[in-house]
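Subject: Sanity check before I submit

Could someone independently write out the structure tokens for this chain? I want to compare against mine line by line before I put it in a report. The sequence has 298 residues.
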Amino acid sequence: MAGQPFDQRDGHIWYNGDLVPWTEAKLHVLSHAMHYASSVFEGERVYGGEIFKLTEHTQRLHDSAKLLGFEIPYTVEEIDKACIDTVAAQGLMDAYVRPVAWRGSEMMGVSAQATRINVAIAVWEWPSYFDPAERLKGIKLDLAEWRRPDPATAPCKSKAAGLYMICTLSKHAAEDKGYADALMLDYRGQVAEATGANVFFVKDGALHTPTPDCFLDGITRRTVIGLAKDRQINVIERTIMPEEMADFEQCFITGTAAEVTPVSEIGPYNFEVGSITQTLMEDYMAAVQPASRAAAAD
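---
Independent answer below. Compare away.
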């Protein structure tokens, strides 16, 4: 499956209420979303046949759509069920789930009030986001040139396709230099996030993480904060300036794709893969397993 184009895979995709053959899930070249980025999406992981925090992701999909000025024509419960049905149709126990909603081709121009809102859900195998060997010893990040925008200039609380343009540019530039990813600052020059993950630092036994006021407060981010508090680890959400990275001892990033991934280097700054990072990696992997969640609920 590795390297196979995503439009030529096997199985089915849920598309506007029906499971259709994977290669038949198509949209027109004049779809509004393709030209004006009127699209929102989610990324979810399946562990042991169950989607982790499914309803939280689906609710965020709805919230993101509202921020872009459209309403998804399926309820949260209907999309939850569609995600579960699509995972079952694909027959995968460990996988990635991609729900996406977008404006169709009924209008072409900046105005799009009469466009149909389409929804699709695809599920596929996706192992570790980063090279497993590199991940264990800590990935290396470049410092991105692009910055997360001012909330007055973009709907930064949405998981909207258009907000990822500068993420792709930043990740490509980092990979061209031999890095795994890039750390982005925000419009004020403060530490923000990686191209698709939130960032945490460790100093004197406490976690420090940027306040998510112009980027997503990730579902994995919130999960890890909860796990840290369960361990009686102090979590400090605050403004972090780039030069402060010289004084941090550990660093890791969090996201549905990244899970909890240690960072050994960000530009000129170096970090160890220490005990707090390792503990939270283990706690997160335990938390996402269905058996662990069932035991915790009992």
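---
OP: Matches mine. For the report I'm noting this point. The chain has a mean pLDDT of 95.
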